[in-house]
Design goal:
This protein is α+β, with helices and mostly antiparallel strands and about 140 residues long. It has 3 helices and 5 strands; from the N terminus they run αααβββββ. Helices cover about 45% and strands about 25% of the residues.
Length: about 140
């Protein structure tokens, strides 16, 4: 049984698609597209040199064009603050007097222990304060 060259290129494309799925490395996908382009050249009757050249040119072109675009999109992604980082910079309401020794605030719907950033300051109940840091289970406010 004699298998045509375009079938071998498609088998190679599938073979390159497997590590793409397993490793999430997009370069394998770009090489797979190059193999599919070579399969098209083979199906149209192009010689082995033309097939290899098309495969290499398409793969390199995709890597040269797609990787910088993907890197730029990855870098532009907004960073989502989660956990205690999401609480920093938020406003809270003083429930019990807060000073350098402690107190209580309502932050994001929860009651937190708090202390003043400046140990000399104090905040009375009902006052709005800004959370500047979270130290363990204590909000540091000013």
């Amino acid at each position: 049984m004699d298998i045509d060259a375009w079938v071998w290129w498609l088998i190679g494309a599938v073979g390159l698609g497997i590590p793409l799925v397993l490793t999430a490395m997009p370069e394998f996908g770009m090489f797979a597209v190059g193999a599919v382009a070579a399969a098209v050249v083979a199906a149209l009757g192009g010689g082995i040199v033309a097939q290899v050249l098309v495969s290499v040119v398409v793969s390199v072109a995709l890597i040269a064009v797609v990787r910088p675009i993907a890197a730029r999109h990855r870098a532009d992604r907004p960073r989502l603050a989660t956990g205690i980082d999401a609480l920093k910079g938020r406003q809270a309401v003083v429930l019990e007097r807060v000073d350098g020794n402690g107190g209580r605030i309502k932050l994001a719907g929860e009651v937190w222990s708090a202390r003043a950033y400046d140990g000399e300051q104090s905040f009375e109940p009902g006052r709005h304060v800004d959370v500047v840091d979270i130290d363990g289970a204590t909000a540091v406010v000013m």
